[in-house]
């Protein structure tokens, strides 16, 4: 297996003035490039260690928890670091989907997750990804046979339990977790799943290849946001079907690491030109808002997004709520093995 590695040094991308401190923050944390492997390629010990660290985030006190209005917010009460991740995606939900920043923002979100696993929970590995294309081909019609769903060395099975509602996950390490953040006025609710093989098939090689073949970011991003992105969410089902609340399921991060890998492959296909290829709208189209059940983002956000209009640029600010990590720009995360993302994918 070979890493997806860059061919030249980092580009001198434009950055907003406040990003200098963020660059220092990440430079200190990028001492070794994280070699991200598929879940299936990990040893049982490596899988166990990742699961341990993930549960540690669910049990660790929130970072920077001195703001009571942040801890007690309209989506619930933040009780641990996992809730902070959940809150961040919920509060940014109508801004990071169906927009140009979709792929860069989620790339950064996965990186912050990886970093906190390492710094808060002593995880020594890199962030794994779910090889969804491999699973659609290896376990066609029997997605539950994939080792990623193993109750002992994986993320547990399908939703079957009914102690707190239908489709509660009843097996594996996350069977008994309580989720505290929700855009639907729910508290202390279970993790749900409802597998769909037909949805997971959206990650098949022909759909991924279709996106890879687009020559510019705006077309490629729109394509990746379609079948490939929907595959992991719909295939897992349950909470993962909710476009905003989905990070409550730990599978979310492996799914988006996989999608990020496919995006990086696309960038490398015309490198380094695609390190500066960015575009797309900054606000969701009304039809997309209606589908997702969201309201339009306001000027309180757009006034600080770093762009002069409704087109996403390299100067666009990527917000990471709750001070889990400093905000950066799209330009800061375009190079996968730069000091911010600090990663390579092994495939």
Automatic annotation (TrEMBL):
Pfam families: Tyrosinase (PF00264). Keywords: Copper, Metal-binding, Signal. The keyword Repeat does not apply. It comes from the Eukaryota. Residues 1-22 form the signal peptide. Residues 97-114, 249-260 form the Tyrosinase copper-binding domain. This is Amino acid transporter. Transmembrane segments: none annotated. Gene3D superfamilies: Di-copper center containing domain from catechol oxidase.
């Amino acid at each position: 297996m070979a890493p997806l590695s860059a061919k030249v040094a980092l580009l001198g991308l434009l950055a907003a003035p406040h990003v200098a401190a963020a660059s220092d923050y990440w430079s200190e944390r990028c001492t070794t490039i994280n070699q991200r492997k598929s879940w299936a390629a990990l040893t049982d010990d490596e899988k166990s260690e990742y699961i341990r660290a993930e549960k540690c985030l669910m049990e660790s006190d929130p970072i920077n928890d001195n703001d009571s209005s942040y801890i007690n917010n309209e989506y619930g009460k933040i009780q641990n670091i996992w809730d902070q991740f959940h809150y961040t995606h919920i509060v940014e939900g109508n801004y990071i989907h169906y927009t140009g920043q979709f792929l860069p923002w989620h790339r950064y979100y996965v990186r912050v997750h990886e970093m906190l696993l390492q710094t808060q929970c002593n995880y020594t590995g890199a962030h794994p990804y779910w090889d969804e294309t491999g699973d659609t081909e290896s376990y066609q019609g029997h997605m539950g046979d994939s080792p990623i769903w193993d109750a002992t060395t994986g993320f547990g099975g399908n939703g079957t339990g009914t102690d707190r509602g239908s489709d509660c996950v009843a097996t594996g390490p996350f069977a008994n977790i309580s989720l505290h953040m929700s855009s639907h006025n729910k508290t202390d609710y279970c993790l749900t799943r409802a597998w769909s093989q037909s949805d997971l098939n959206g990650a098949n090689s022909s759909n991924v290849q279709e996106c890879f073949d687009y020559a510019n970011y705006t077309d490629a991003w729109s394509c990746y946001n379609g079948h490939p992105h929907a595959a992991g969410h719909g295939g897992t089902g349950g909470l993962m079907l909710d476009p905003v609340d989905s990070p409550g399921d730990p599978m979310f991060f492996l799914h988006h690491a996989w999608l990020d890998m496919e995006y990086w492959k696309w960038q490398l296909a015309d490198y380094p030109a695609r390190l500066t290829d960015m575009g797309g709208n900054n606000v969701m189209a009304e039809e997309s808002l209606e589908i997702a059940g969201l309201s339009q983002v306001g000027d309180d956000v757009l006034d600080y997004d770093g762009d002069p209009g409704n087109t996403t640029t390299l100067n666009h600010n990527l917000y990471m709520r709750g001070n889990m990590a400093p905000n950066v720009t799209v330009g800061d995360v375009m190079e996968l093995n730069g000091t911010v993302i600090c990663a390579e994918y092994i495939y």
